[in-house]
Design a protein that fits this description.
The strands form three sheets. Strands 9-8-7-10-11-12 form a six-stranded parallel sheet, sandwiched between helices. A four-stranded parallel sheet has the order 3-4-5-6, with helices on both faces. The protein has a two-stranded parallel ribbon with strand order 1-2. The protein is built from 16 helices and twelve strands. 45% of the residues lie in helices and 13% in strands.
Length: 363
């Protein structure tokens, strides 16, 4: 499995969990990164990675031949190449490596691909990116909606499959009891987790917080790093809430913060499968407010029976939901009581079993 980098995102956590699950399904797996923040040879905590490639410096276009040659050596020892990235350098390198090693290519699609292409890939490369997905031996999607989108982009329906991402409740409970770093904010506080990317809607959340905090003082803690960090910090200054918004950056273990939060908010404009972060919040029994965005949250929250749903990018509705909960938390606390049971329905190894089945069917 090839990924461009190991930045801490939901996709990385899903892929690490996938590697561990595939091992339990009887597969041998090598996970290769082009750029890495961790030391070579490291991987998921359970040791499921058997090999890790890391470029010694940030990726440059002139490095492509050397990277392909090195990854090709790994690929020749394997039966197939899987791209853990559905767009960009990771997908392109996976395709080049698979071709040069004469191995079939599989692709894992975590996102609404047509939107991701429009948002992250330059116009001149979008058609090529889509073509690679179309040519893949198999494509595993994280929801039926994502699969429909992939097929609409030209991938053969018979080459696609759907696997639902799950959570390991036992591991989450252990991680939630660890010493939090950074320290927990003073209550009450609202928590959210995700890469600082436009699709996550953190700009809307900060604007909603700026309105809600006027009625009831509280903190907003955003756990995650990404390209919008400077822009979001500037937004907090413009709105006068820089002292109550904590942009914590990359946090290795966000679970103590989510488990202790008065409220978890998912402000996304789109999600691939209802959001791994949303499932993790449910697993902790944390009250939830979520945007009713495409692909998932409504289903995960059972039409709102397990949390509050608000329209996407509706600042007033999100601010009202946050304020209402902080003033009268009983309703969402009662709904959250069913969260752990719901999270348990999403088997941690279900995604790996779906991929294993798709590999066997397409072999």
């Amino acid at each position: 499995m090839v990924m461009f980098n190991d930045y801490d995102t939901g996709g990385r956590r899903v892929n690490w969990q996938l590697v561990a699950g595939l091992r339990r399904e009887g597969f041998q797996v090598r996970l290769a990164y082009v750029e890495t923040m961790t030391a070579a040879g490291r991987g998921p905590a359970d040791g499921a990675v058997t090999g890790l490639y890391a470029s010694p410096r940030p990726f440059r276009r002139r490095d492509v031949p050397v990277i392909v040659w090195r990854l090709r050596k790994l690929a020749k020892a394997c039966d197939l190449v899987v791209s853990g990235d559905e767009v960009g350098h990771g997908l392109t390198l996976s395709y080049l490596v698979a071709r040069s090693a004469a191995r079939p290519l599989g692709v894992i699609v975590h996102s609404h691909l047509s939107k991701t292409l429009a948002r992250q890939v330059s116009p001149r490369w979008r058609a090529a990116n889509a073509w690679i997905v179309q040519q893949a031996r198999f494509v595993l999607c994280t929801s039926a909606g994502v699969r429909d989108d992939v097929v609409a982009l030209g991938a053969p329906a018979e080459a696609t499959g759907v696997g639902f991402v799950g959570v390991d409740l036992g591991r989450l409970r252990i991680e939630a009891t660890a010493q939090p770093h950074p320290p927990l904010p003073a209550p009450p506080y609202v928590a959210t987790v995700g890469r600082l990317d436009p699709i996550k809607g953190f700009d809307t959340l900060i604007r909603a917080h700026a309105r809600a905090v006027q009625r009831l003082p509280h903190r907003l803690m955003i756990l995650g790093g990404g390209p919008l960090e400077a822009e979001l910090r500037q937004l907090t200054v413009e709105l006068g809430v820089e002292s109550s918004v904590l942009l914590a950056g990359h946090v290795a273990n966000p679970h103590p913060h989510v488990a202790a939060a008065n409220l978890f908010v998912l402000s996304s404009r789109s999600e691939a499968n209802g959001s791994l972060a949303l499932l993790e919040a449910l697993a902790h029994g944390t009250p939830v407010v979520s945007t009713d965005c495409q692909f998932g949250p409504r289903d995960v929250l059972l039409e709102g029976r397990l949390g509050k749903l608000v329209p996407v990018d509706d600042i007033d509705a999100l601010a009202a939901a946050i304020t209402q909960h902080l003033e009268d938390p009983d309703e969402l606390r009662d709904r959250a009581a069913g969260g752990p049971q719901r999270a348990a329905e999403f088997d941690a190894d279900g995604f790996a079993r779906a991929l294993a089945e798709l590999i066997r069917r397409r072999s």
